[in-house]
């Protein structure tokens, strides 16, 4: 068995660690690229959203490296993601690309359901080792999330352009190379030191912008045209509403781990704008805009794949949230035709707007 999975940001770091801990062969698909998207768009339905097309491309590229088993997360509610794993599997079968499919549906009642599904991949390995592997993977996810958050704070204050990006790559590589739970803490410390060594101007004024929306387009840099990097280079400190380790705890661990950031903080404040589940992260997107406005953020940018129904619902509500809170919002819709240059132009205009609004606010308070 050689297991692969979709490429979504740094998700490969914890998944690779978990599988290697269990002595399971893993094939990490190449980072998403134009080739990945071309392969996916060629073989996927035209109106399927960007994540499905990139997933198809990931699996075709992983097959070239010998992968034979796909592990995908499932979903529920009025969001197509819940059946995308099965649609992708059927498309691959039509292409005569043979894969075994394992779908990890979010547990409905207790975490034991998740462990039962994981058993399809882990076979007869001892439960204690399986649980330790899951814990190890989760800790790697938390470590990569911490380093990413550090980059959001450092990039807009860096003294040398590109220094944060180079440090981030080195720091993530340190975490990725940690080959056991025992070596991970030291690797995380080295990663922190790499990030802290980036020369910065701590007194440089920066804007604070939340990046909210659908999880795949938030976590995968190719899908969002590297928006976090571009905003940082424009002097904007970013906070992303969804981090991988938080999603794992909320949706797979059912909130088992306490005292960690959770999407519950968004759902609690989504009402009265949206007070029911609409699938995907639609409710959280609305709530996150409210939450970040209350935290004093200068603006929020919603990112979603073209035709994503839950995010379209949220998009229709965000103007009212913006009007009530006074925090500007902008929506970016991504598909295979999205261009980086056009997105940068829109970001520059939005950041200019936020600067003017920030200056006006300071003038009124001085």
Question: What does it look like?
Answer:
- This protein is an alpha/beta fold.
- It folds into three domains: about 1-125, Rossmann fold; about 140-200; about 205-365, Rossmann fold.
- The protein has 15 helices and eight strands.
- The chain has helices spanning about 10-20, 35-45, 50-65, 80-95, 110-120, 125-155, 165-175, 185-195, 215-220, 225-235, 245-250, 265-270, 280-295, 310-325, 340-365; strands at about 1-5, 25, 70-75, 100-105, 205-215, 235-240, 300-305, 330-335.
- Helix 1 (about 10-20) runs antiparallel to helix 6 (about 125-155).
- The radius of gyration is 20 Å and the shape is globular.
Task: Please give the structural blueprint.
Elements: E1 2-4, H1 12-21, E2 25-26, H2 34-43, H3 50-64, E3 69-73, H4 81-94, E4 100-104, H5 111-122, H6 127-154, H7 163-177, H8 184-196, E5 207-213, H9 215-219, H10 227-233, E6 236-240, H11 244-252, H12 264-270, H13 282-294, E7 299-305, H14 309-325, E8 329-334, H15 340-365
Parallel strand pairs: 1-2, 1-3, 3-4, 5-6, 5-7, 7-8
Structural class: alpha/beta
Q: Average pLDDT, to the nearest integer? A: 92
* Through-space gap between termini: 66 Å
Number of domains: 3
Based on CA atoms alone, the radius of gyration comes out at 20 Å
The biggest sheet, with number of strands, parallel, antiparallel or mixed sense and barrel status, is:
4 strands, parallel
CATH class of the largest domain: Alpha Beta
Strand percentage lies at: 5-15%
CATH topology tier name of the largest domain: Rossmann fold
Q: How many distinct helices?
A: 15
Query: Low-confidence parts lasting 5 or more residues at pLDDT below 50?
Result: none
Estimate percent helicity: 40-55%
What is the 3D shape?
A: globular
Q: How do the SSEs run, as a string of H and E?
A: EHEHHEHEHHHHEHHEHHHEHEH
Number of strands: 8
Major β-sheet strand ordering? 2-1-3-4
Which second-level CATH architecture of the largest domain applies?
A: 3-Layer(aba) Sandwich
InterPro entries: CoA_activase_DUF2229, Dehydratase_Activator_Redct
Domain DUF2229: 8-71
Protein name: DUF2229 domain-containing protein
Pfam families: DUF2229 (PF09989)
């Amino acid at each position: 068995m050689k297991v692969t999975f979709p490429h979504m940001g740094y998700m490969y770091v914890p998944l690779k660690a978990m599988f290697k801990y269990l002595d399971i062969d893993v094939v990490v698909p190449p980072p998403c690229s134009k080739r990945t998207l071309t392969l996916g768009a060629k073989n996927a339905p035209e109106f399927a959203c960007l994540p499905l097309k990139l997933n198809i491309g990931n699996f075709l590229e992983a097959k070239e490296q010998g992968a034979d088993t796909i592990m995908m997360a499932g979903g529920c509610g009025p969001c197509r993601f819940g059946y995308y794993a099965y649609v992708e599997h059927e498309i691959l079968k039509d292409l005569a690309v043979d894969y075994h499919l394992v779908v990890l549906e979010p547990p409905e009642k207790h975490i034991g359901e998740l462990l039962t599904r994981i058993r399809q991949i882990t076979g007869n390995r001892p439960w204690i080792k399986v649980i330790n592997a899951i814990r190890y993977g989760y800790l790697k996810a938390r470590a990569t999330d911490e380093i990413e958050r550090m980059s959001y704070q450092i990039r807009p204050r860096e003294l040398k352009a590109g220094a944060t990006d180079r440090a981030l790559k080195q720091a993530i590589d340190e975490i990725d190379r940690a080959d056991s739970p025992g070596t991970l803490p030291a690797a995380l410390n080295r990663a922190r030191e790499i990030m802290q060594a980036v020369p910065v101007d701590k007194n440089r004024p920066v804007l604070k912008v939340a990046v909210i929306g659908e999880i795949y387009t938030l976590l995968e840099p190719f899908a969002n045209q590297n928006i976090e990097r571009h905003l940082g280079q424009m002097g904007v400190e970013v906070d992303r509403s969804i981090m991988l380790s938080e999603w794992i705890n909320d949706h797979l661990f059912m909130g088992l781990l306490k005292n960690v950031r959770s999407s519950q903080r968004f759902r609690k404040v989504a009402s009265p704008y949206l007070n029911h589940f609409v699938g995907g992260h639609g409710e959280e997107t609305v709530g996150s805009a409210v939450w970040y406005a209350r935290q004093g953020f200068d603006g929020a940018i919603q990112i979603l794949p073209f035709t994503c129904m839950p995010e379209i619902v949220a998009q229709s509500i965000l103007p009212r949230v913006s009007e009530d809170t006074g925090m500007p919002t902008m929506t970016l819709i991504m598909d295979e035709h999205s261009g980086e240059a056009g997105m940068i132009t829109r970001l520059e205009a939005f950041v200019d707007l936020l600067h003017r609004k920030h200056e006006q606010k300071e003038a009124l308070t001085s």
